């Protein structure tokens, strides 16, 4: 597979109006498999790092994700370059990357290949059932025990924070997360880390929607990005409503003050 073929694959996955150059370094690198240069819009792949074209395509999609996000940044910021300290691998990046991988899989341009590794597939099922799910069940029960311990601390006039800090030697934030997971109706099969993410979604309907996405194969980053987008959409309306109420209150106060000043002037 050559540079032109890889570039055509990327454009077939998702087109871009911002042209870029695909470059094979012809080298092997122990540090990175590839990189993207936003200033010159170059995707550089250390093609000697890959044993298969499939591995190369994976990295090409990774770097192309940087290019697509750079295109969005330039469009939204009137062509201004991103600051040098900007974090490149954000949640938005991983969500976009995973969505491109899904498109590539649907079009037959990339495969994970788990079906060709039966031992790994068997190990994966073992991890899911006997570790991720069982750990989720265990942590859910742990949260219930902590909630009960809180009640008993209150009955015994013991500070729960002191009990957590010095008796259980458990970080307070961890304790809060564990308890919140136990209080939420989430599927332990998604694993404890994802259970924490789901528990942070206040709306039961939205929490269920996020859980369904996870169970359907979406990555945690993709689910977070989708939930954030929906929250942002709601926040825009909420923010405007709050601003409207604040302005109306300010106008009312100023109107009242104006009437007082006019009355004072009339009496002079």
What does this protein structure show overall?
- With 268 residues, the protein is mostly helical.
- The chain has two domains: 3-112, 2-Layer Sandwich (Zincin-like), CATH 3.30.2010; 116-218, no CATH class.
- Helix content is 66%, strand content 4%.
- It is built from nine helices and three strands.
- A three-stranded mixed β-sheet has the order 1-3-2.
- Helix 1 packs across helix 2.
- The protein starts with a helix and ends with a helix.
- The mean pLDDT is 91.
Number of structural domains: 2
Mean pLDDT, all residues: 91
**Biggest sheet: strands, sense, closure?**
3 strands, mixed
Q: Per CATH, which architecture of the largest domain?
A: 2-Layer Sandwich
Order of helices and strands: HEEEHHHHHHHH
Strand content: under 5%
Helix content: 55-70%
What is the class of the largest domain in the CATH system? Alpha Beta
Number of helices: 9
Low-confidence segments, given as residue ranges, are: none
Shape type? flat
Number of E strands: 3
C-alpha Rg (nearest Å): 27 Å
Provide keyphrases for this structure.
268 residues; mainly alpha; Zincin-like; three-stranded mixed β-sheet; 3 strands; 4% strand
Task: Describe the protein's topology.
Elements: H1 3-13, E1 21-24, E2 34-37, E3 42-45, H2 53-76, H3 91-106, H4 118-155, H5 160-167, H6 172-183, H7 192-199, H8 204-215, H9 220-266
Parallel strand pairs: 1-3
Antiparallel strand pairs: 2-3
């Amino acid at each position: 597979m050559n540079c032109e073929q890889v570039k055509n694959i990327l454009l077939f996955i998702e087109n871009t109006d911002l042209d870029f150059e695909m470059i094979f370094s012809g080298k092997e690198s122990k540090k990175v498999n590839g990189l993207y240069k936003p200033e010159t819009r170059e995707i550089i792949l250390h093609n000697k790092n890959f044993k298969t074209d499939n591995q190369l395509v994976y990295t090409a999609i990774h770097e192309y994700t940087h290019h697509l996000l750079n295109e969005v940044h330039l469009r939204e910021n009137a062509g201004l370059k991103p600051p040098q300290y900007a974090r490149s691998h954000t949640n938005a990046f991983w969500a976009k990357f995973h969505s491109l991988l899904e498109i590539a899989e649907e079009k037959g341009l990339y495969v994970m290949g788990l079906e060709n590794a039966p031992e790994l597939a068997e190990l994966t099922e073992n991890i899911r059932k006997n570790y991720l799910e069982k750990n989720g069940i265990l942590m859910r029960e742990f949260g219930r025990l902590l909630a009960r311990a809180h009640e008993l601390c209150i009955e015994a006039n013991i500070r729960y924070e002191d009990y957590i800090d010095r008796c259980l030697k458990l970080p307070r934030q961890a304790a809060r997360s564990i308890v919140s997971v136990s209080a939420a109706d989430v599927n332990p099969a998604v694993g404890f880390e994802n259970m924490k993410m789901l528990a942070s979604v206040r709306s039961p309907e939205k929490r269920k929607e996020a859980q369904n996405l996870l169970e359907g194969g979406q990555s945690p980053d993709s689910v977070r990005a989708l939930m954030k987008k929906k929250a942002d959409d709601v926040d825009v309306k909420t923010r405007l409503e709050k601003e409207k109420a604040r302005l109306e209150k300010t106008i009312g106060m100023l109107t009242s003050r104006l009437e007082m000043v006019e009355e004072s002037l009339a009496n002079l």
